[in-house]
Amino acid sequence: MQLPSVITIDGPAAAGKSTLGYLLAQRLGYTYFDTGVLYRAITCLALRRGTSPDDEEALTKLAQTAQLQVLPPTVADGRQYTVLANDIDITSGLREVTVDRNVSTISSYPAVRTALREQQRRIGAQGQVVMVGRDIGTVVMPKADLKVFLHASVEARAARRHADVLERGEALPSVTVEADLVRRDALDASNTFRPQDALVLDTDHLTPEQEIEAILQHIETRLWGPTHRVER
Ligand code: DC
Predict the structure, then answer these.
(1) Spatial CB neighbours of 177, under 8 Å, sequence gap ≥ 6
(2) Which residue is closest in CA terms to ligand 1's atom 16?
(3) Ligand 1: which of 9, 17, 35 to mutate, most ligand atoms within 8 Å of CB?
(4) pLDDT given at position 224
(5) Domains in the chain, please, with CATH?
(6) Residues 27-56: pLDDT tens digits?
(7) Residue-level pLDDT at 53
(8) How far is the CA of 51 from the centre of ligand 1 (A)?
(9) CA distance to 111, 133, 144, 193, per residue, from 121 (Å)
(10) Residue 10 backbone phi and psi in degrees, to 5
(11) In this model, does residue 78 exceed pLDDT 70?
């Protein structure tokens, strides 16, 4: 059974993209690539170096010159991947609250996006990949074989993000998490696109397993035609 080689999953923050993308990639034996980690890596590097998130020129240079690598997990601590920046493992810093608060500003700079898109396309071109992000099905890989867009309410997304924050041992009230999310939504809006030909899933009422089932059914019945069965 032939499967789509490039699968894109786009959607707003905390819509459940990474959980679904990771599980789907595992199920299909594909590479999982969360493109947001590149924007997070640049943000993390900038904060560690004391570069202001408002310094667009310095951030552009950083995005153009930093050696970023996204690898399968090198440490068994529950991570989905390992990210190296100039050969240093920065994976644990990527989800810090300060990175969360600044990454939308940094990812809004057009030249930063151009530099990081090149890296995303290189990995996408290798095929057998599930790519997760905001503009993957429209701008980065517009010819992808299968495009998925996740929709979820602000309340469900804030609850999901708050659970992540608590799990990391950070003490932030849920109202602060929701306010941060709404602020980031506004900044990310101009770079988050729903492909016209996407399978749209509302994740408020679906478990990741149900989402995977819906995707496999879509592949069988809509993408390739009813005679195909995907190996379950
Ligand atoms: O999905 P995330 O929260 O890890 O994304 C981090 C930031 O990167 C967020 O501000 C949106 C941005 N991003 C983007 O603009 N384009 C992508 N393809 C992926 C992420």
Answers:
(1) 158, 161, 162, 165
(2) 134
(3) 35
(4) 65
(5) 6-208 (3.40.50.300)
(6) 999 999 999 999 999 999 999 999 999 999
(7) 97
(8) 20
(9) 16, 13, 11, 17
(10) -115, 165
(11) yes
